[in-house]
Amino acid sequence: MKSISFEVSDEENKMIEDYAASHHLKLSSFIRNAVLDQIEDSMEINKNRVLCAQKQSAEERKWDAQDVWKELDV
Q: Strand, helix or coil at 18?
């Protein structure tokens, strides 16, 4: 198993430790879950953006070459 370290201020450290302790969480588990939740949320947002774009694309008018030439009056 790998470990990751990062720097926080004394105030941030106290806030993180106090939060984890008040919720009866191990600090490492709390931080790991917070990071993974952020990644999963981001992936879900991206997935929703793709699904929305696909839906919009399906609802948009499709143009073939003949339609374009006709529209351009060529």
A: helix
